[in-house]
Design goal:
mainly alpha, single chain
Length: about 100
């Protein structure tokens, strides 16, 4: 499986986990996904690092952005997480050269 596909799957797991608590079946599936390979585990660790970086984002960050650019109507939800994972993938690809 390609690194790109693994990162895509990691992004999908992040979206699912951020949307709501995993069911028992989903948790088992998630653990099985992570344990498929070292590449899966590494992708998840990088995804967790990315998520933890959001902890430093101000609580009113969404409101600040909306005030700064009303036309954009930026939505802080699944699209943001997927975009960040795409950036993470770019960084990984850049570092692998």
């Amino acid at each position: 499986m390609s690194q790109t596909q693994i990162l895509k799957e990691a992004a999908e797991w992040i979206v699912l986990i951020q949307a709501s608590a995993l069911t028992d079946a989903q948790q088992i599936e998630f653990e099985a996904w992570k344990n498929q390979s070292e590449a899966h585990q590494t992708a998840w660790l990088k995804a967790e690092d990315l998520l933890s970086s959001f902890e430093h984002f101000p609580e009113n960050g969404q409101e600040i952005i909306k005030k700064g650019n009303h036309a954009a109507r930026f939505q802080w939800n699944k699209q943001l997480v997927v975009a960040c994972i795409a950036c993470l993938g770019s960084i990984i690809a850049w570092n692998s050269d």
